[in-house]
Design goal:
single chain; mainly alpha
C-alpha cells in the first residue's frame, strides 16, 4: 500500500514524438490560425487549460500527448543551449 501514497507518472505505449517537434507543430498551427503562438503557449503552460491551443491540425491533441513539465524541460534545454 505504500506505493499508493506517492505520485506516479504513467506513460502509454505508442509513438514517441519529441517535445521539440510537438512545440514546433503547435506553434505553426497557432500561427496559421492568426493567434500569437507565444502568448497561447504560455497561457497553456501556466494554466494547463487546453483551450489556449487551437484544435487546427490536431494541435490540441498533440500538445496533450506530453506533460507540461516535459514541454517546459524542452524549452529550458533549448534556451540554455
Amino acid at each position: 500500500m505504500d506505493s499508493l501514497d506517492h505520485t506516479m507518472m504513467f506513460r502509454t505505449q505508442g509513438e514517441d514524438v519529441p517535445a521539440r517537434e510537438i512545440l514546433q507543430q503547435v506553434y505553426a498551427a497557432l500561427q496559421e490560425k492568426g493567434y500569437d503562438p507565444i502568448n497561447q503557449l504560455v497561457g497553456y503552460l501556466m494554466s494547463g487549460d487546453p483551450v489556449y491551443i487551437t484544435s487546427h491540425k490536431q494541435a490540441r491533441a498533440l500538445i496533450r500527448k506530453l506533460e507540461r513539465y516535459e514541454l517546459l524541460e524542452e524549452l529550458v534545454r533549448s534556451y540554455l543551449s
